[in-house]
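Chapter review: from sequence to fold.
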Amino acid sequence: MNPSSPLENVRIVLSHTSHPGNIGATARAMKTMGLTSLYLINPKQFPDKEAEIRAVNARDILNRITICTHLDQALDNTVLAAAMTARPRGLSHAMFNSRQGAQELLNYAQKHPVALVFGAETSGLTTAEVNKCQIIVHIPTNPDYSSLNLASAVQVMAYELRMALLGIEPPPQAPGTPASFNEIELFYHHLEQAMITSDFLDPEKPRRLMQRIRRLYARARLEKEEVSILRGILSALEKKI
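The token string follows.
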């Protein structure tokens, strides 16, 4: 069943949150803008009274929270994941500011689940977590003082998503269905194993080959049929090997 609003297809994902108050404040920020889906990855403290206090009248969102042990669970069946980070990254994915990123997410959320991923308060997202996403989104803050509280960052993005919704246009007729996170991860695993088998990739000295490959296919925004074709090619080559 299709959601009544694309915002219902947007997951806010908080990874390794240290302070339960930020979870409650995030729930409140989400509810003011019509977002309802909150995922937590290994929160340090939750459930917690402080989260309930900070949520105020958004405790219904706290009650529906999905708690995960790793990012793959939170991104299950999404077709686009955006990593929220302000740090410069080597081999970076396509980068969007907060307004552009919100629009990009909403374009896909009209028909499919998407995710906006935030890192821990002190350290942010790890490189491995960023590599699981297809795009990077940053909030263009004052370069002399760019530090934003986690819940404040969620509020900014929730507002931008709301504004993107108000100006949304009917989705164009897509040529195909986007591949899900799960399908793409299986493809990466299949490709990595094929490269190891063919001696193209030395698992003892991988360098950053898989990171580069993830960046390449993140730009392509693979469709389901394209993933099937690529995996079919790999399977055929494996038989020859």
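Two observations follow directly from the output. The mean pLDDT is 92. The chain is about 45% helix and 15% strand.
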